[in-house]
Model the fold of this input.
Amino acid sequence: MRHMFINGEFVASSNGGTFAVYNPATEEVVDEVPNADLADVRRAIAAAGTASRAWRYTAAGERCEMLHAIAQQLRANREALATLLTQEGGKPLVENRDEIEWCAACFSYYAEMGRNSRGRVIPSVEPTQLAMVLKEPYGVVACIVPWNYPLLLLSWKVAPALAAGNTVVLKPSEMTPLSTLLFVELCCTHLPVGVLNVVTGFADVGRELVVNTGTHLIAFTGSFATGREIARLAAERVKKTHLELGGKDAFIVTEDADLDVAVPAVAWAGLLNAGQVCTSTERVYVHESVAKRFTDNLVDFVKTLRLGNGMEPTTDIGPLVGDKYRAKVEDQVEEARRKGATILTGGRRPPQFDRGYFYEPTVLNNVTHDFRIMREETFGPTIPIMTYRTFEEALTLANDSDYGLGANLYTTDPVKVKQFYEEVKAGTLWVNDPLTDNDAGPFGGMKFSGGARELGEEGLEEFLETKHVHWEFEVAKKPWWYPYGKDA
Done:
């Protein structure tokens, strides 16, 4: 059993409780982890608080070298981390190896960002004054991360938080805590005691992290419903939140697009990690003149993809992470079927598996925005398709969503590209290159997707607050009681 890491020590839950972590491909227990209680959470927050002052005043260059060392440590342990990710999350091993490299790159990026001076000197209103804008850490940051990319989304928060001089208490999803515990163990070999802590458990653990007065910023990635509750609890305490709340991303394919490229691109964007990606393509809009050819080719392509255990090198798509998540996908597909959608391929549990939370990659058309599958986040291997006549109609359809995380366009027309990035309300827009990330480019959403930004300079700024220093250095010329006593 892997233990929590609090104040530089491996610890069990103070109540002795544990919970099991299951392999979604086999439904077998992988391991058990401590089920933290409120005393454990408070101990972790206190440890982070104690470490906060020394870490804040650690030279930026020293913090930089520690983050670079973490990046090297992650790369050296890539196989062990990727294996745990696959065993507890189901994502194919080859994809999890990539995830570890992305994590290491993120730590390296923020190591260098953290070297840079922050703040600025601003013009003073008189020659005997100095005015400065300072950027300083919040203190203790609570990071609550999901199960679909547990280490990458952890890195997007923890790396800039540490680079900015904050200390961290981390709560992984109860579905995928094992890789996070190993990850933190590796990180803490290069960090002072108490700077990074991890507690494992359920909603009560997350709630305590939000409401406890010892945390100063809450960084969360997950569902809109949970994010809204976090925002409510934090607002009652006037506490800063950093929320990324999922999406319902659109993918527009124009009549001039190269379908030989666009078809596998849509499949990749919709089915990566069995569709369990915040920026998964969940709505496809294809020009009516190419819709039949595009759809036929997409169905043929999807039928070649191989379902299986993520540990098998031949697997293209693994299972969903749990039965309740598969049930949600099934409910949306079944409702679409009842309302008149045509299931072109998939739409069922694969008969070759008697265990595991598998669901066939599914392509369907004859859908409208009245269907839940076109309005609610699905988070599963589905690709629903609608047709459009004009590009303006496609843009309207893309914007017809409560969410605004990302959107895709495939076209060879630069005029359409300009219309797309000017008019679509989403935080990240991909043109002819779906779901790529750039550590230097901000990631985040609009509308119900939340307003936080991760990565880039903006990702560092999220973990810094602003202070204005106004310094009058010729005090004798202007006593504190000026102007009331100027004639005395």
The domain at 4-245+450-469 is CATH 3.40.605.10 (Aldehyde Dehydrogenase; Chain A, domain 1).
